[in-house]
Structures are given as C-alpha cells and as structure tokens.
Specification:
The structure holds two protein chains of two kinds.
Chain A: H1 2-21, H2 30-40, H3 46-58, H4 63-101, H5 103-108, H6 110-137, H7 142-157, H8 162-185
Chain B: H1 2-16, H2 21-34, H3 40-52, H4 57-74, H5 78-108, H6 112-141, H7 154-171, H8 176-193
Helix pairs in contact in B: 1-2, 1-4, 1-5, 2-4, 3-4, 4-5, 7-8
The chains are: A mainly alpha, B mainly alpha.
Chain lengths: ~190, ~190
C-alpha cells in the first residue's frame, strides 16, 4: 500500500516537472519524458516511447496528455493514469490562471520575451538530441530509411495531414513484414 | 449554463483533433468566435502567450478561455471554475481513449499486425521529429524568414550560440530542466545587454 502510494506520487511529480518545463507543446516534451521516465525512473524504454508517440499522434487530443495517460496506465493502472495526467496539466493551470487576469501586462514584459527567445534555442538543442537517441532506437534497414526520409520530406515540405503520413507508413510496415514472413516460409 | 457549455465545447475540441495541440488551435478559434466568447484579437494575442508559457498549448488555451468566459459572466473568482471545467473537457477524451488503447495494446503488442504496423511507424515518428526540428529551427534562427539581412542580425548569432551550448550540454546528458533554465537566463542577459 505504501509502495503504491509512493509510486503514484512519483508519477504525479515526474509529470508535474515535465508539464512545468515543456515549452511549445508536443514534441518539446520528448526530451523531458526521456530524462524523467526512461533514464531516471525506468518506467519504459526509448523504444516504447517511439511506439507511444505513434499512438499519441494517431489518437485525438494533445500529445502530452496522451503520453501521460499511456505511461501512467502502464506503470500503475487507472489511478496511475489519473495521477500522471493531473500532474502534466497542473502547471499550465497554475501558471495560466494568474496570467489570464494580467494578460496585457504579461505580454509587455520585456524579460518574458527575452527569456522565451533563449528557451526556444534551448528547446531546439534538446529536441535535436532526442532525434538522435530516437534514431538510434529505430529499426535499421532500407525500408526503414525510406520511410524515415519520406515522412520527414512530406511533413516538412508538403501540406499533408500527419495522420495520413502515419497511416501510410503503418501500411508499408505491415506489408513489408508480411512479404518478409512469406519469403522466410518459402 | 456557461460551465456546462465550456465543458462540452472543449470536450468536443479534445475529441475531434488528431495530431496534438497545434491541430486544435483552428478549432478552438472557431468555437470561441462562434460562441462570441472572446474577440479574435485577444485570442490571437493569447496564442503567443500559450506558446511562451510551459505546458501543452491546448491546455493553456482551455485554461485561459475558461477563466475569461466564466470570469466575464459571473465575476473574477468564478474564472477558476471556468478554467477547471474547460481544462477537464480538453483532457477527458484523450484520457479515456488512451486508457482503452493502453489496455488493449499490452495484449496485442506482440501480434503480427501490430508489430508490422509499428515497424513502419517507428521510422515515421523519427521522420516527424526531424521535420519538427527543421520547422522549430527555422523559426528560432530565422524568425522573419530567410533573406540576406538575417546574416547581419545579431539575434541570429545569439540564438546560434545558445543552441550550440545547449546542444553540447544535451549530448553530455545534462538535465533538460537545467538546460531550459540556463537558456532562459542567457536569453534575458543577452536581451538586456545587447
């Protein structure tokens, strides 16, 4: 019982930290999730994070919420999911609520602008590092590289919905696995 | 009943946007304008704030819209409840859907079909993160677009320097939270000094 409570608290607090330091939403939280959930707590692996991002991207809702719920469920069931999700949402709530009353003054704060300029460059660096660790975890091979390149080019330069890209890659993956399996059986 | 309306509206927004927070922005804008809750200008201003404060952008938007709408209707303190119901509405659909998916995923993770799809989805996600790095990189280093003028702009070199320093620290496995705090401090220091 005490262990369970401790685990729930850890889930809440890890995701509270993640929520409090994710700037710019979505992918910007990947470096933090890797640090807290994979390296520190070992609740999951980089490999599973890749799978969770794929699932989070193909289901409705903010990626941050999807990831928190997923990791929470995996670690401690329904209550775990509730604690992780509450943790990731709470910082936004605590920060935005006071700001919404003094929005004008907040926007005119020069220091906020300067800080944010710096943070964006920092987030870019963190995301680059995540890209590298994710690349290392990814299955290698011709089809893999082709899908990686295609997903990158299509999302970066064409106006195609991400869901379409994901479905396309899933189908290619499924067909390739099927063909390889057939070949092995022959 | 403004609270129920806020909850249902954000529940709908949460349930029908696939692909994360940024995909929600157009829908949030449309719903908020249709209800006549907030003027377009304030909303657009707030999007900039939602992006420059921590947390998922969609949750930030919901908290803000809830606070303003309920605060306008019943007075400031009720804004807290408005924020809470709007945020709950945004979060609930994801929460319920992932709860179900996570249960089933454990069962089917080793199945041929799921493994096959995942073998395509993993490289796809790496490509998607790559595209995010490119687009964030563009907006960080060249916020006004690419032209010859950017190369004489001091800000480009400051951003590049912060980026390079943070990249070295990130690859040395320094805690990301420290890196974010450091980048904010350098941003403030260079902003006031230069």
């Amino acid at each position: 019982m005490k262990n369970k409570l401790n685990l729930l608290w850890q889930l809440f607090f890890a995701f509270f930290k993640i929520g409090a330091f994710t700037f710019g939403g979505g992918y910007a939280m990947i470096p933090l999730i890797q640090r807290e959930v994979v390296e520190n707590k070992k609740w999951t692996t980089d490999d599973e994070i890749l799978e969770m991002i794929a699932i989070a991207e193909s289901t409705p809702g903010p990626i941050a919420i999807n990831m928190a719920t997923f990791i929470g469920t995996r670690t401690a069931g329904f209550i775990g999911a509730a604690c992780a999700t509450f943790g990731v949402v709470l910082p936004s709530f605590l920060i935005i609520l006071p700001i919404s009353y003094v929005l004008k003054e907040f926007q005119e704060l020069q220091a906020v602008q300067f800080a944010f300029n710096g943070i964006r460059a920092g987030v870019l660096a963190l995301l680059l590092k995540s890209l590298w660790t994710m690349y290392k975890k990814c299955p290698k091979g011709l089809v893999s590289y082709l899908l990686m390149g295609a997903a990158f080019l299509i999302t970066a330069f064409l106006d195609v919905p991400v869901l379409v890209v994901l479905i396309g890659c899933a189908l290619v993956g499924l067909i390739t696995s099927y063909v390889t399996k057939r070949r092995e059986q022959v | 009943m403004i609270f129920l309306e806020l909850f249902l509206t954000f529940f709908k927004i949460g349930a029908f946007t696939i692909g994360g927070g940024y995909a929600m922005l157009p829908l949030i804008q449309q719903e908020v304008l249709n209800h006549g809750w907030i003027e377009l200008e304030s909303l657009v201003n707030f999007i900039a704030v939602a992006e420059s404060t921590p947390g998922p952008v969609a949750v930030n938007m919901a908290t803000y819209v809830g606070a303003i709408v309920a605060g306008d209707a019943y007075g400031g303190a009720w804004g807290v409840l408005g924020s809470a119901v709007a945020t709950l509405g945004t979060v609930l659909p994801s929460f319920l859907i992932i709860l179900i998916v996570a249960k089933f995923y454990q069962k089917f993770q080793q199945s041929f079909a799921v493994k096959g799809c995942m073998s395509g989805l993993k490289p796809c996600v790496v490509g998607l993160i790559g595209a995010a790095v490119l687009s964030i990189g563009g907006s960080v280093l060249f916020p006004a677009g690419l032209s010859l003028a950017v190369f004489t702009d001091m800000n480009l070199y400051i951003s590049l320097a912060i980026f390079a320093l943070c990249a070295v620290l990130a690859f040395k496995k320094v805690n990301p939270i420290l890196i974010i705090c450091l980048s904010a401090a350098i941003g403030i220091a260079t902003g006031y000094l230069l």
